[in-house]
Amino acid sequence: MTTLKILSAGAVKRGVARIAAAFEQETGAKVAIEFTPVPELRRRVAAGETADVIVATPAVLDEIAAQGKIVAASRGYIGRSRMGVVIHADATMPSISDTESFKKLLLGASHVVRNEASSGIYSEKLLNKLGLTAQLGEKIVVVNTGSAIMEYVAAHPAQAVGLAQISELMVMMDKGCKVKLAAPLPDDIQNMTSYDAAAMAGAPAAATALAQLFASAEAKNIFAETGIS
């Protein structure tokens, strides 16, 4: 029996998992999914690793396509994820109405946590842009993944603040992680990360069908329920 391998960004985990499960039931094909930060996904594919379907940012899929490793007709747009401020589930909800209140919150935090994925790279640039990097100094904590941000905040309830994709926060809240959304980033510093899906060259026809399903109107409704719109 065919088993399709998916390499996917973690931010779209809930939607990808739900749609893949429905695909399995409908087609009888097996689907194995590995979720990984986009920079790591990019590195692995560049090093020669293969999969049947890739779910990643458009820039990464453009790179893979330029190497002749993507079935162009299979590629489609999934949606976008917004970023938010993560706090411990028992913490008092702060007021984050604008960029100044956001800065005040971070300066008063015990730790400010970001990851090494696409959203974490944006967070790093944002802290630099707002002049906070030097002020925060060793308060800045860098972890590998989005889920690790939530785990760190949950383990440091005294004023730890995470900067993460809202869709990844929802995944961890579903798992019982003791975190919550304080607020999305203010509009003027918000970051939207887009995601596409595509089948890799040489994959079976079922991979193209699955990649196209991820970009379908039906799938967009599912993704919207998981924070990707």
Q: What would your notes on this structure say?
A:
The protein has 229 residues and is α/β, with parallel strands linked by helices. It has 2 domains: 3-80 and 194-225, D-Maltodextrin-Binding Protein, domain 2; 83-189, Periplasmic binding protein-like II (D-Maltodextrin-Binding Protein, domain 2), CATH 3.40.190.10. The chain is built from 10 helices and 10 strands. The protein has helices spanning 13-27, 38-46, 58-66, 99-107, 118-129, 133-136, 146-155, 166-174, 205-214, 217-225, and strands at residues 3-8, 30-35, 53-56, 76-81, 83-88, 111-115, 140-143, 160-165, 179-184, 193-199. It has a 5-stranded mixed β-sheet with strand order 2-1-3-10-4. A 5-stranded mixed β-sheet has the order 7-6-8-5-9, with helices on both faces. α1 (13-27) links the parallel β1 (3-8) and β2 (30-35). α1 packs across α10 and α7 packs across α8 (166-174). The longest helix has 15 residues, at 13-27. The chain is elongated and about 55 Å long. The model has no long low-confidence stretch (mean pLDDT 95).
Counting DSSP E segments of at least 2 residues, the number of strands comes to 10
Q: What is the typical, i.e. mean, pLDDT? A: 95
Which percent range fits the helix content?
40-55%
Give me the strand/helix succession.
EHEHEHEEHEHHEHEHEEHH
The biggest beta sheet reads:
5 strands, mixed
CA radius of gyration is 18 Å
Name the beta content range: 15-25%
CATH superfamily of the largest domain: Periplasmic binding protein-like II
* Spatial order of strands in the largest sheet: 2-1-3-10-4
CATH class of the largest domain: Alpha Beta
Shape: elongated
Tell me what the CATH architecture of the largest domain is.
3-Layer(aba) Sandwich
Number of helices: 10
What structural class do the secondary elements suggest?
alpha/beta
Distance between the terminal alpha carbons, to the nearest Å? 34 Å
State the low-pLDDT regions, or none.
none
| Number of domain modules | 2
